[in-house]
Amino acid sequence: MSLITLLFPKESRVFYYGNNFISNLIIDSIFKSNDLKKGVDNLIDLYVENGYPFVKIDIDSVLMVGDFDLYYLTIKENGQFYIERVENIYNVKSSYLNGILRIRNKLFKESLIVEKLKNLSFNEDLIIDTTFFVEKVSDTSVLIKTKIQQGKLSSISGILTSSLDTLSLNGFLNIYLKSPFGFFDVYSINYQRINKNNSYLTGFTEFPYIFSTPIGLFGNISFESIETYYNKEEYSFGLKVFVTEKFTVSTGYGKRNINFLSSDSSDISENYLIGSVDFFSKRFFFLNRTTINYSEIKKNWAFMTQKFGYKNSFKKIGYWFSFDSYMNFSSDLKDYMKIQIGGNDNLKGYPENFLKVYNFFYQEIKSGYLGKNIETGLFFDNVLYNIEKITDYKSYSDLFSYGIFLTTNLSNYRASLYYALNKDITPLQGRIHLLFSIFF
């Protein structure tokens, strides 16, 4: 054990011992450029940033001898520690946080933990608190106790659409349960009635960060009925890998069965592989999903869906842009491969399921007032589409619509109203879309 003496600029001296990890040279430089209190604080911070959360520096005595102040310090390092795991004391499960924070088995570092907790803000469903507690669980490892909460994430949502002149309603109803058990697991059921002859029922589930690993599971099931034409049932499932908290890669298997109601067509049963790459942040998202059939080697096909969007604001003026596309590369096009355009999802000035196409490119631009609880302004959307096999992009047709929107956001509900026109209708024939969500 050695006793080190350091001369202060203001005729003071400090004596310290007990340091093993941090050298005398570094400690001397800290105290030479700071007074005693700030020097002790800075030295503790240095230890904490290098895996010593329980370090203590005791001022054993202060003596005044002539023109000198003599300080005697004892440095108690109390061991270097690694992070064993994170344990959350509120309703967000620890396995989710361990999976997304990714600090297990890393050297304890206070600034790293705070930075990781701040980065959780990308998930707007979380209530972030960067304070935490440290608990010793062994001679070399500690437990990090956090206070992360989740807001009201589950919802019941509905959409009613109609034109002003006909008042014929089309309905959508969605029950969405998110993180009911604190794992950020998702369960969703969605029913759509396009018209009296066409309805959809879909279900989706996702369970992320299984056993605190960056791997999750997902599953989908859907039913479509078009009276006098066909009934379709489909399911898929697979793995989702969280490369980072914002970037994921998924792959899986699916099966599709189609029962044609006419005797002129044979029923279809197909298997397919799916893959997707997704990126989300507060202002930007990107999705790329591909489906490849492998049940009939000579008739391979691929659906590719791409989506991305961007949202930003300048003071109280907000602007949004989103893009969506659906491309079909099949050498043998079938009606069931088509996707609908028109309606609330992608062309608000036209009726729901206005047209079914093999390929389309959709874009929407919105701009207006962006308040705390109210958003309002103008929108414009446009679709380029093709009802034939992709040959060249000159063969695409286009449709567009425009209008106004008003959205209110409160703690327990959200409501949006769209009034949309297209080039072929008058203002008295405009389409109304009313969207509402109740959160719990």
Describe this structure in words.
The model has no long low-confidence stretch (mean pLDDT 87). A hairpin with a 4-residue loop joins strand 7 (132-136) and strand 8 (141-146). Helix 1 (24-32) packs across helix 2 (36-48). The chain is mainly beta and 440 residues long. It folds into 3 domains: 4-76, membrane protein fhac (Ubiquitin-like (UB roll)), CATH 3.10.20; 82-150, Ubiquitin-like (UB roll) (Roll); 155-439, Beta Barrel (Porin), CATH 2.40.160. The strands form 5 sheets. Strands 10-11-12-13-14-15-16-17-18-19-20-23-24-25-26-27 form a 16-stranded antiparallel beta barrel. Strands 1-2-4-3 form a 4-stranded mixed beta sheet, with helices on one face. It is built from 4 helices and 27 strands. The radius of gyration is 31 Å and the shape is elongated.
Topology:
Blueprint: E1 4-8, E2 12-17, H1 24-32, H2 36-48, E3 56-65, E4 68-76, E5 82-88, H3 94-101, H4 110-119, E6 126-127, E7 132-136, E8 141-146, E9 149-150, E10 155-163, E11 170-178, E12 186-195, E13 198-207, E14 215-226, E15 230-242, E16 247-260, E17 268-280, E18 284-293, E19 302-314, E20 317-328, E21 339-341, E22 355-357, E23 359-370, E24 374-386, E25 397-409, E26 413-422, E27 431-439
Parallel strand pairs: 2-4, 5-8
Antiparallel strand pairs: 1-2, 3-4, 6-9, 7-8, 10-11, 10-27, 11-12, 12-13, 13-14, 14-15, 15-16, 16-17, 17-18, 18-19, 19-20, 20-23, 21-22, 23-24, 24-25, 25-26, 26-27
Helix pairs in contact: 1-2
